[in-house]
Amino acid sequence: MVPSVTQCLPPHPLPLTNDNTASLTHHHHRLLHHLTQCTSISHLKQIHAHTLRTSPAQHNQYLTLFLHSSIPHDLDYAFRVFRQIDEPNSFAWNTFIRACARSRDRKKHAILTYYDMMSGATVRPDKHTFPFVLKACAYLFCLSEGKQTHAQALKLGFDSDVYVNNSLIHFYGSCGCLDCAREVFEKMPERSVVSWNVMIDALVQAGEFESALKLFDEMQRSSFEPDRYTLQSVVNACAGLGALALGMWVHAYVVRKCGSDVGNGVLLNSSFVEMYCKCGSLEIAEQVFERMRKRDVSSWNSMILGLAMHGQAEAALNYFARMVNEGFMPNSVTFVGVLNACNHRGMVSEGRKYFDTMIRDYKIEPVLEHYGCLVDLLARAGFIDEALDLVSNMPVKPDVVIWRSLLDACCKKNAGVELSEEVFRRIIESEGGDCSGVYVLLSRVYGSAKRWHDVGLVRKLMSDKGVTKEPGCSSIEMDGVAHEFFAGDTSHPQTKEIYAILDAIEERLESIGYVPDFSQAPLVDELDDGKKQSLRLHSERLAIAFGLLNAKPGVPIRIFKNLRVCNDCHNVTKLISSICDVEIIVRDRARFHHFKRGSCSCMDYW
DNA sequence: ATAGGGTTAG
Q1: CA distances (Å), A102 to each of A83, A91, A134, A144, A291, in order?
Q2: With a 7 Å cutoff on the CB, does A401 touch strand B?
Q3: Distance, angstroms, CA A266 to C1' B2?
């Protein structure tokens, strides 16, 4: 709930502000002129000293001007100047609060200064004050401070101000309080484009891509023209959803609107690159990238990360070399892309090399993501001991993702029950044990060792703790509409045809010698028949069958899956791509697979 | 004077 007026601070006297700027003298104007010409802090200090000498009486009056001018040069100096002002007017308070909110390392002081302002009896905040304070609250995730600020803004009657409301939406969005953001958005009497933008972006940031797109639709129906911020958020939503059709629509919209200027929008173009990669269209992504007239490090990063995600390690590394060649300085994110590229191709020695290069030559401190790539790379290439060693000794605290990838590797590489148990124990120690994926992995380790009793124990543990397996779900876009399938789903209108196709395919597969791979089937020692049944109902098969049924010939079938593709589905999809002569592009939880003529772009390393 | 901007490993 957003605060109401009753939650406000106690009332305090509200004298009108002492408005220094009202009595501008000739001298004042000259001083102002000098100050605006000022380009260095030493020059500014000279003028300050001169003023102190020549007109000490008006000194206090001029301090606000010095404050304003010194901020871009030296925040510490500005801070000292501000401290000297006897009774700052609201302009002076606001100026200082804004400076803190914009600073890199003084954001906290924006809030503290605002408290000072509130607790004094001389000034009250005005409509400019709140956006500055809320910006700092948003950045620092100061939820309760921001809520108090909200209450005070209400109390002082700024609840209809567009700027204040937009700042509130942004603040609540940044703190993850979507309901509060939505409430402010719904209640505000007047909206601007920014109101829609901050609300849409809040949804995108929270991963509520469908809601974001719905709001985008509503925005247009309310006759608001989208601007670059809107489009940016919408493209990000498309990337998140894999909504290629809508993404292309936005792209066309931008091209139509900007004409030959499209090539200049660095940020938006980089988002297009990312969107096309995440929607499985590497060719278009590269086209957009090559046509960009201006690029920055992030543009290169989008391309490198995108190629890495598709397992195109060589291409990704080529882009890296090109980027360096063209004088761009790779950053931390660049190396996540590079390491991930190595990871998806099992390039262990290259991965180690780039990790060292990053630290030694580029002086980039590795963060969790870098360690994540390296640990995963080592573990999946079979160097599990080394990976475990790295996790144990790295300077950042490993999270559940790293641990799970290690356990996953143990499982895939048959690292043995003892090592797997060791990793599992470490996970529970550091995570507390409510992470679902790791139980499934452990039960699989026991299953492959045929220790059915232990499988049962893990299952019991899972049900006791209430951890469940995330259900598999695949979706496919057809004529701009997403069709969603769960495992064994029979709710789709074309269910009959879909299952008929699956039967026909299975018959074909068996006739060419396909044998199901049960290694990742549910781990109960039940009859093969039951396992087979559960495998053939995996959600991606239904989606692929739907695609075969409805896609135009020659058009690739694009599938999205929330989990990773299992071995058996991977085999089957390869075979389908061959017998049906169709390209199938699958984005799973971790990466893309391009199935074509019986093989997959991941070369079976995933 | 006031609001909205990037990425990242599984």
Answers
A1: 19, 16, 12, 20, 34
A2: yes
A3: 27
